[in-house]
Amino acid sequence: xxxxxxxxxxxxxxxxxxxxxxxxxxxxxxxxxxxxxxxxxxxxxxxxxxxxxxxxxxxxxxxxxxxxxxxxxxxxxxxxxxxxxxxxxxxxxxxxxxxxxxxxxxxxxxxxxxxxxxxxxxxxxxxxxxxxxxxxxxxxxxxxxxxxxxxxxxxxxxxxxxxxxxxxxxxxxxxxxxxxxxxxxxxxxxxxxxxxxxxxxxxxxxxxxxxxxxxxxxx
Length: 219
Prior knowledge:
Pfam families: Cnd1_N (PF12922). This protein is mainly α.
């Protein structure tokens, strides 16, 4: 497996390179519901490392977000959040003080740090798209309210768009839980999964952006 590098843009992961991980194939909208369900099973069996098999599927949900049904979006969100929670639990149990003289299996280190980065990246991406939907739905609700008695056609169109994208998550609670998990992940001493034990700049920067985002939401 190649190194997963935090992309500048999501589409960067669709460009094949010889030096870093790229998405092998996007899953079709038609097959996403069953594929996401398979991720739920992988998560139960394999915990933290299930993401190594499921990343492309969950990434496909993001790429096809506007076309994916609400149930699949919710299932994918739960897989991502529970996967990150499992990552925090499992890593907390194996992390030890960094010993410069210790030797570790390079393949094992690569899998662990890839899983950490994949979990953090997907959770941040899902938070962003769901937050954007939440804002859009609030705007649509305002249009419907204003449209009562005038501009009914526009209000009706906004209502249809809102119904198409509605998910039943208690988003403020879900978002708070996700940010708590991100905070816990950021506080883990994961340096030992890098060789040498220095976390790469892009991931460190991403962690900083996550914490800034958390503060903006008033957590």
